[in-house]
Amino acid sequence: MSIRLSFLVAAALAFGACATPTFLVPEQPIVRPVVDRLDESSIRIRWPESFSAGPVVVYRGIDPSFINRAVPLAIADGQSVVLTDADDPNIRGRRRLYFELVPAAGGAAVVTSMRRLPLACCDNFRDLGGYETSDGRTVRWNRLYRTSELSQLTRSDLDYLSQFDIKLVCDFRSERVRAAKPDRTIDDAPEVLDLPIEQEGVDPEGLRAKIRTGGLVALGLEQTMRNAYRAFVTDYSEEWSAVFERLVREENLPTVVHCTAGKDRTGFVSALVLLALGVPEETVFEDYLSTNYYQQDFFRFILRWIPLYSFFRTDPQDMLPLIEARREYLQVALDEMVARYGSVDAYLEQALGVDTEMRAKLEHHFLQ
């Protein structure tokens, strides 16, 4: 689902979820070079063993197109390097930096950056740049971001986001949820496109009642989630089409897409865009499932808190189908596209209007 129950969010904030200056770096499989911020003055760059058989030379830039190759920032052995503001003063203050990694023994260089932005109150704000397409091109950084709701952003977060010159925010939350928890406005006030996507069976009030009384059943939630992903395909073509119509216009970029938890509605439309750009399906699943790594703290909080809230009537494990991103959920949606239209590409073209001309425009704006 895409719903962080409001009582859980409020409690998390009450316990100081936004107060720590250290940015959690969850352990996850490393299949491509990645950059994570550890705290205000240090970052870590990691790469898979397959990337280089020997040392890796690291260069830095403030833009992916302008990397300073005059002097290496580091020459690192192993599969990772930690850089601090002693290595480069620009590292301090959460500034967005880009790094070119060059295998010293030869091989293709890669330009990478932080995928998850280091925000205090938005643990799933991610850049969809850096993914390679099937034909060897790369999705540009700072074109499309995916995230959870923006209602909890701090003043520091808003100041940080102002550097990206965001032009458009697409909000998939229901009208009721938007009214109850309005997004905080990013500086320079980007245009907001409201595209409410309702998910049957995940009404917050109904869920609270089931949790409270012990009426939550994991198998029932799994089926609810599968039904929701099928409905994304069958019931909301106009909304997804509206997103693509905006993304093909340069004046709308960078764009942020979000719902409540940034998992389901946001995960689905993010997958559609990456697939339309030619990113391999397995990479799309990788991005979709990354939510589980970035929201580990939230998961742990729920598993600790649900027994108390329900007076031990609800097993916290029964919540997992609701809060986790699961491969089978997105697979259900892809299977529905194939069953109804013959292929994912046919769904994009026939249901959403993403034809050859629109794809060419998308590729022009998003690929390099």
In short:
Helix 12 (327-341) crosses helix 13.
- Biggest sheet record: 5 strands, antiparallel
Uncertain stretches of 5 or more adjacent residues: 1-17
CATH superfamily of the largest domain: Protein tyrosine phosphatase superfamily
The fold-level CATH name of the largest domain is Protein-Tyrosine Phosphatase, Chain A
Number of helices: 14
Averaged pLDDT: 87
The tally of beta strands, per DSSP, is: 13
Helicity level, as a percent range?
A: 25-40%
Could you say which overall geometry the principal axes of the C-alpha atoms support? Answer: globular
Beta percentage is: 15-25%
- The secondary structure category is alpha+beta
CATH architecture assignment name of the largest domain:
Alpha-Beta Complex
User: What is the total number of structural domains?
Assistant: 2
Q: Nearest-angstrom radius of gyration?
A: 21 Å
What separation lies between the terminal Cα atoms?
Answer: 33 Å
The H-and-E topology, N to C, reads as HEEEEEEEEEEHEHEHHHEHHHHHHHH
| Overall CATH class of the largest domain | Alpha Beta
